[in-house]
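Methods: example folding runs. The two proteins below were folded one after another, and each record is reproduced exactly as written to the output file, sequence line first and structure-token line second.
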Amino acid sequence: MNHLVEKENMLKVEDISKKENSENIIKNFQKNPLYEFTSPEDYFNIALTLTKKNKFDEAINIFKKAILLKPDYVEAYFNIGVILYSTGKYLFAIEVFNKVISLNPNYTSAYNYLAISISKGSFLETKPHLHSSILQLLQKKNIVNPASIAKAVISLIKCDPVIKDILKLKDNPNLDDSLINIISNLSDNKLLIELMCLTPIIDLDLEKLLTRIRSFILLNIDKIQNKNEIIEFQSALALQCFINEFLYEESKLETQSLKILEQSIELLISEGKKPDPFIILCLGSYKPLYSYKWSQLISLPGQYEKVSKTLINDFFTEKSLSSEIPTLQEVTDKISYDVRQQYEENPYPKWTSIKLNPEPLPFDEIIKRFRLKLINNKIDMSASLNVLIAGCGTGRQSIDIATNYKNSKIIAIDLSLRSLAYAKRKTQELGITNIRYMQANILDLGKLGQQFDIIECGGVLHHMKNPMAGWRVLKDCLKAGGLMRIGLYSDIGRQYVVKTRSEIVQLGLDTKKSQIQAFRNNVIKLQKSHHHDLIKISDFYDLSSFRDLVFHVQEHRFNISQIKECLSQLDLSFCGFMNNDEINRRFKLENNNNDDEYNLDKWKLFEEENINTFSAMYQFWCQKR
């Protein structure tokens, strides 16, 4: 177990006692388990030792004895939570980490574990006592990626009796009569409001309700009297719609009303008057405010600073930053041009917050953590690392690597200048200085004249005209013995996408926003069997992700036999998949020899029997011979 934390300002495990070492204390305790220690630290250190010996039940009982002597012993509670998490008892772990945070709201590790415990499942009953800790988790900077816990948090929100009652009314044709009260009640759920400001709401029930509320506000904008009561919710709604890129269904009546609203705002500004923030927020829930020529002439009150930054100012910051990003070579091939155009229109992925690692690790430690099997163990991964990220998109991957790999210097490239500008803005906001961004095509990377210790290319090669041509260029940019992480679509795991893409071709749809929206709305209404897999993943709930998922201009898919053949042709050695703990656990139940996890033939059989194993993507490491 790697995540046991010996408390801040406490006895270290190796300093347990001057009278006898920890092994003797354990032996004496086992001989006489009824012996009562008077020091909670003695119990703590015994429990910590038991935990490291994988005697988890015994350890929990001893930690509890320490807590009896010291009721506010946060470190003892924390280590109980770690054991519960590590043994798959996630809901119990959540309760314990919640207790830790209630005792010490500044216990960073508890927030980290609360986040990963929440991400593992969902809630089936209301737990109002958890709302405060989860709210603090979301409000803290760089502790969690909100998207990773959104589904579980939404399940908790939907267990709230008030929210349950509201959602029962979402299809009621007379809902408008009570919408002001509904908005007021929704505003009281601070967890929902915070989530709306951070990440797409990945739930169709809430989406339908939010769509109706947005329409109601627009169509009744001159009739609503008590605007102050709903403006906080309206701010969150504007941010949510911006984050999901205005994906919600829009009626013809709304479109007509929007034109009238746009004209009225333009008239007010031309007369030197300030539009009501209520009106601006209403418009901002339908269209990006930065797209209006008057956007920089308006100022929202201080409490809407986040709205102004997100809906207006960030765009102009990125526009300025884009001029600072160098271009390696102009794009010449058509597929690369079309792919670039897609991401210029819809930078991907859109994100607001990210989990940062406060203590980057030497890469040899990361090799151990990922259990990578290297053919050359003599390569030096402890010194400064030159890293290439081939296809960095909007920067989430490059920032993650920059804060995880110790002593790393990163070049991050992408086709889309707009995506790179988004990445650079977020990188500067986070104060990260070891990333250099560049607009470039993978096919042109030889012109860099540089070789790298590590290359990461996740989810990019399968969008090229010839993935092997791109992969070969990357291999040539890798030092001998260097490591490469690759992400490729699985043909087996992606059959629901294949069927959906066939529908789109048969319907003759293009990539205009209106056609993407219309098709998505049709999926929601029809819900064919293969649509169910679409609807339950987060990519369904924002425009750029949904377009990337099923409307992409170019897509190849692979199977494990093809990956094995590609690695052979490129003279690369397979080092291991990047799977979650649950997949690895199930694989090892059937394949328990030490080298089985590095045997692609074994994984091929496993995937054929478990077709959703790589439904997101194959992600694996390989090494240059």
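Second run, written to the same file directly after the first:
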Amino acid sequence: GKIIRQYDSQAVEEAGLLKFDFLGRPNLSILADAVARVRHRLGIEIDIDRLPQRDEKTFEMLSRGETLGVFQMASIGMTSYLMKLKPTRIDDLNVMVALYRPGPMNNIDEYIARKNGSARITYLHPKMESYLAKTFGVLVYQDDLLMTAIEIAGYTWGEVDKFRKAVGKKIPEEMAKQHLIFVEGCQKHTGMNAQMAEKLWELFEPFQGYGFNKAHAASYGNLSYQTAYMKANFPVDYMAAVLTAAGGDVDEIAQIVTECKRIGIKVLPPDVNESNGTFTVVDDAIRFGLYSIKNFGTGVADSIIKAREDGGALVDITDFLTRVPDKNLNKKSLESLIKGGALDAFGERGILLANIELLLTYHREHQKAPTDQGALFAFEGNARASIQLADSPPATLLERLTWEKELLGLYVSGHPLDVHKEKLTKQKMTIKQGKGDFPRGVDTVIAGYIEDARSILTKGGERMLFIRIADYTDSIEAVVFPRTLKQTPDLFTPGACVLLKGRFSERNGDTSFVVEKAKGL
């Protein structure tokens, strides 16, 4: 029953009100989840707001570039700067958060050089040392600009607020006016010559519209440190929380799993006895959660978890079908469990799939009539007839991996390229690197596994292909033009492992790979 009026930010200010921005960060939920996991699994209580401020493991991890999952630090550019910087304090993270944006980022190299002792620390005026000492004389924050205007150009606090608005909102007319006031103020207030005053003003220009104030940078930098601390000190629990937060984003989950493997954390397929709904930590490894399996409802997953909680571990496939009552355990969901690896402890995937009708019949009859003597399986009281599975060829490695990719979004128990691992030790370029900052149009070589191939005819009636190729780091669409296709027409089939020579190309914001030559691994 309340009346709400809506105003834009400028009208609010003119009315004498303050405008607040409230930012919701998923990283806060990840932190809370990670802290809860550590408490539950290890019995360790972590006060996230009172962490040790100079944790060596945290800064060493950031210096190595292990930044995936760390708030504000995970981009390729930021990671490379951190590896040069070798941060040793939270202030360094505050600085990187503030500078890593258009304009101010030109100051990053200078900050790194001064911090590491390869450049001299200087100040354009002695008064600037009192507020720039912590950043080695480099302008970093919006506050630095305001203090310079007050200390060097003689602004009052009231005047400097107009200056702040002009810089922050990039208002050209106001900036031109402030330019004159600032340069004249520097000469009048400190005796600085006009040339030096102009030089000082030029340092301000990159900050127009992009300068972070200290409070904002410190809030972000602190969150960066908290996430980095948890990853460095409790990597399994933290990365499980990061994976859970990624939800159904298959590309993001694949990237996080790759990082887990790189830092020595095993990521295992789901398991009906060990997996909870979300990603689960088991003996310093991470298991996929039951909710992560495609074509598999959360209701069935919850029934499996409840059966475990009520009666202990599920012993075998007979016990599983007897104790999980969910009516949604149909052919599609049981197939998903088998193919995703969640029933590996009860039988080989190929054999279980070959017997799926038998399994479904057993489950259906047990749920419908546990004492029906006329049923295919005879049940007496609580006794149960064990299922005898018919022999069948086991699934091949390629089949298992293909099913994992289909149902979990990525290869978990291996990778199709594993059989060629030794041959690929000298392969430098990865698909992830190429999609990142590798120059477009430059010849390079990538290796990968063809996941999919789509054929089309050109206007001239010739056949060309669009293929999806994946390596250990990422996947990309590759274009095979008719001339290249004629050289090796039988090579580009799904399931083939290949070396491709060509170049990365950008079109409409999407990166693809143009194939010039190819050969099989």
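Comment on the second run: DSSP finds 22 helices and eight strands in the chain.
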